[in-house]
Amino acid sequence: MLNVSSSQSTKAASPSGPASPVVDVEQAEAALVEHYPRLVRLAYLVLPPALGRNRRVLTAHALVQRALPRGRASAPAVPDQRRQAGRGTDPGYAYVRCQVLRAALDAGLPLRRRAWPKRAQLPPLLPQVWGLRLFPRSGGADELALDQRLAALSGPARAAYVLRGLERLTDDETRRILDAVGVDTDPDSEEADGIAAALAEVGADGPPGGRGPAALLESPEFDPCSLQARPTDLMRRRQHLKAAAVAAVAALVCGALLGMPGDGWGPDGAAAPPYAKNPAAEAALDPGRLTRAAPAAWKQSARTDFSVWPARGELTDDKALLRRALAVWARPGETVQVSATPGTASGAPPGPPQLLFAGPVDGARVVLLYDGLRVVRYAEPQDGTGGAALDFARVDGAEAGDSGAVVVGRADGNVRYLTAPWVRTAVVRDLLKPDAAVTALRRSADGVTDPFGSPALARECRSWNALQLRDHTGASRLATDLGELTPARLTAGRPDAPREAAPQDWARTACSLAAARSHGVRVVNSWQYARQALPDGSGGAAWVCTRAETWRGGGGRVLAQFLAPGGGAGAVAAKAEGGPDCGVREPRVLAGVLWKSPAGGWYLLAAGSKDVSSVAVSGGERVSGNVLAAPTRQGTRPTVTGTLPDGTKLPTLR
């Protein structure tokens, strides 16, 4: 159940979570990006000074960048619940900080002969800086004295000192953090209580000099994000370059000898070595057997999908490029970056695929292929094949509304599309400003659009661009980029009879599309399923359900949103994943929120779709119809249940 205040009707507030909330990757990434300089400073201070300032800088950045969880993870208890919302009470920050501290302490452990080294004990693979030594700016006498004192402390003691001084935590809060990173459970610890020993080693005195701990620890002397650069040993570097050049020449000679006989690995670019020889596999890898639709095939075909797209682009006759694309698709090498939408197979083509596009895009050579089930994008740099990328997207059963565009390139937060041959005009709309003028989108003769801002990776929802395409029949369709090869189609209306969405349908709910990013989404429908008159004469509110359907058919995501009067984004009242609610199979939904009126009273508001005949509250009243407004108290969590005309009970969305 959600608390919604009239003064903050655009945000959802929830009661306090458990002591160890679950943190997902997106939440941890947001905390890492927001507090990156502080986290790197923390890692730099805790790392052993014996590493040297250059390696400490690079290792600190590496530890923070590796701190994200692989999936959903439990965050440690937030250190100080009494603080205002922010870094001190953010579960994502608490989780990332513990990961950074644990890795920084591991980096100070001695290497053992009979034990594998931990990753933090080895030099970082990334980031790397060649030819330069990096170190923070030099400080004064106080900073030098503090650096010498930190060097004399053990790893846990340095961590305790930094948590108390930089993070301003009490001793009890510091104990909980050190316990969470495993200081007490270190089997190599010589102390019975590693935490108590660390706090005792630090003592109660402040740092040397006249300034306080926070002022010294936050000085530029300990800032790994503000750096100075000096060259490495130039004479030794020259010797190493000569040796590397000799080794490179030897490797080229050996490679030429290996690639000379027969069908060597040379023409396949970044592909791995062949794993089998059979006629079907070789036919799928032959660029001469690629299928190509006639330029006007879409005008006579009974189907309107990717199968009738003609081959377009400047490089459709570049057989070397097409061969590399097919070979990498069948056997992606270790250096190829492969991505696939959820539920999409990434195996080799079953036979010769169809060529959709081949041409230069934003400094890369791009090839788009289609095998009846998937659209595949191959991209390689224009100056070689290193760093090739291969992307898969499932598109089986696509219709005209689903096959209007495919991503050909992304760069600097922008996206380019290849539009279908039946598209006549393309414009960009900001869904958050439906009445604003559209931006015309210029297209090349091959149908490639100019780049425009994509909302797929935006950190804040200040705008939400959507692509509006108009075809040869005059039909107009909205689609938006959710970080995949094909844009998600936007519709509106009752789930069993949706229509093409108008910009006004998404004006207050467009930001909720962020919940469907990179999920294999085919279409997102917005349905205003109820309207409700608010108590105390506060006006009328709307209830909207958005459902994201995937190409694989399962795993749909549903959000029920409460739109209070006065404009602004909707507040998420409930959400679910994988169920049939608000979809074509079960076009009904029920949700509720706690709402504070302008007069100061708290109410339980609930609304169901029109097929809900009554709504009841646990231990409270029951009303006929599909909406309910009952007085309540702040923080209560009542259970709301709806009843259908046949007597079936309908729980709230969850």
Backbone shape: flat
How many helices in DSSP terms? 13
What is the terminal-to-terminal distance?
Answer: 10 Å
Identify low-pLDDT runs. 5-18, 78-85, 261-266
Radius of gyration (CA) equals 30 Å
Average pLDDT level: 85
The structural class is alpha+beta
Largest sheet: 10 strands, mixed
Description:
The protein has 654 residues and is of the alpha+beta class. It is 22% helix and 25% strand. Strands 13, 14, 16, 17, 18, 19, 20, 21, 22 and 23 form a 10-stranded mixed sheet that branches. The protein has a 5-stranded mixed sheet with strand order 6-10-9-8-7, with helices on one face. It has a 4-stranded mixed sheet with strand order 1-24-25-28, with no helix packed on it. Helix 1 (25-34) crosses helix 4, helix 2 (36-46) packs across helix 3 (53-65) and helix 6 (155-165) packs across helix 7. The longest helix has 26 residues, at 234-259. The radius of gyration is 30 Å and the shape is flat.
